[in-house]
Amino acid sequence: ELAYGEAARHTERSVVYSAENEPVLVPYELLRDAITGNQLEVYLQPILDLRQHRLTGAEALSRWHDPQLGQVSPDNFIGLAEDTGLISDLTRWNLNASLRHLARARRQVPDMNLSVNLSPRMFAERDIAVQIASALDVWDASPEAVTLEVTENALMEDPALSLRLLTSLRDRGFGISIDDFGSGYSSLAYLKQFPATELKIDRSFVMDMQSDARSVQLVRSMIDLGHHLQMHVVAEGVEDATTLELLTRMGCDRAQGYHIRRPQPAADFVASLEPQNR
Ligand code: C2E
Ligand code: MG
Ligand code: MG
Ligand code: MG
To answer: What lines the ligand 1 site, CB under 6 Å?
Structure first.
């Protein structure tokens, strides 16, 4: 048995599970061609503002439709993209595709925010902040409307580099979110330094809230921690009404999860928005 990372590094192939749950080795070229050949699609998952009780954001999640493999989950191809250097192309593609939908969404909801996932593997690339910023020019989007998500573990791969890049992105006006918070191994010393505007609590804690009192207490502590560091706090993985109610009462700012809505094709998300005048 090959561990997933091993397979990708040595042969530039990744193990992907087909619709029949059979492991399939996917070569680098297949993913490369999918990125250039329009086989990727942006899904958007709404983010609910718990104070205003309305949708004020959405997270862009990549989907890969392969004729043979069916729909491939990002958990199966982000790693391959990272190990083979395709991740920058993928991210550029995702950013461009989702910004187009943000522009449309903002016609209905003027303060709509877009969250995009960044991989640390692209941090070392030259002018990455400039590249991200110039993608926005094309769609006349302001950095204030975009939140860049980086997982806690990603930040810790090279904390000094992450700090430099995120500071430069924050200086340009982007929101910065620490994704999957609590599941990784960041130290509080670094948390204090990162210029993050948002803390996104990992879904493993949120999904357990309904059945486990200790998870509720942990989430409560993470909400307080984020607020004490002047960050907005988002809970991901909200799967039931009880959890949503608890989060609202505990002062969590925003929520995302299947109970609110599943990720959906970006155009469907935009079409579902009610016009708001504010
Ligand atoms: P993430 O950024 O933490 O995104 C949230 C993931 O949780 C998504 O999985 C979403 O579909 C899933 N999710 C949302 N609500 C619920 C819920 O209530 N219950 C459960 N069980 N899951 C929920 P998805 O779309 O499969 O993406 C997986 C990961 O792949 C993402 O995790 C993100 O780290 C990465 N990813 C996706 N698209 C991109 C991309 O374009 N670029 C990069 N660098 N990473 C991406
Ligand atoms: Mg994310
Ligand atoms: Mg997450
Ligand atoms: Mg995740």
So the answer is: 45, 61-62, 73-75, 78, 90-91, 94, 117, 119, 149, 179-180, 203, 236-239, 256-258, 263
Rounded distance between C-alpha atoms, residue 178 and residue 201, angstroms: 8
CA pair distance 201, 246, nearest whole angstrom? 14
- Nearest-ligand number for the alpha carbon of 148: 2
The CA distances from residue 125 to 8, 53, 122, 162, in Å, are 21, 39, 5, 12
pLDDT tens-digit series, residues 210-257: 999 999 999 999 999 999 999 999 999 999 999 999 999 999 999 999
Q: Do residues 76 and 93 lie in contact, with contact meaning Cβ atoms separated by under 8 Å?
A: no
Residue 160 neighbours by CB under 8 Å, 6+ apart = none
Q: H-helix or E-strand containing 135?
A: helix 128-138
Which two structure tokens, joined as six digits, stand for 27? 């070569």
- The model's pLDDT over 80-115, given as tens digits with 9 standing for 90+, comes to 898 888 999 999 999 999 999 999 999 999 999 999
Q: Residue 49 carries which side chain, given as an amino acid letter?
A: D
Look at the alpha carbons of 200, 204, 207, 212 in this order and tell me if their dihedral is positive or negative.
negative
Contact at 8 Å (CB) between 200 and 176?
no
Whether 3 shows a pLDDT value over 70: the answer reads no
Q: Assign residue 85 a region: left if phi > 0, alpha if psi is -120 to 50, beta otherwise? A: left
Kindly state the helix (H) or strand (E) to which residue 66 belongs, with its residue range.
Answer: strand 54-66
C-alpha of residue 62 to centroid of ligand 1, in Å? 8
pTM score of the predicted model:
0.93
Instruction: Kindly give the distance from the C-alpha atom of residue 181 to the centroid of ligand 3, in angstroms, as a whole number.
Output: 8
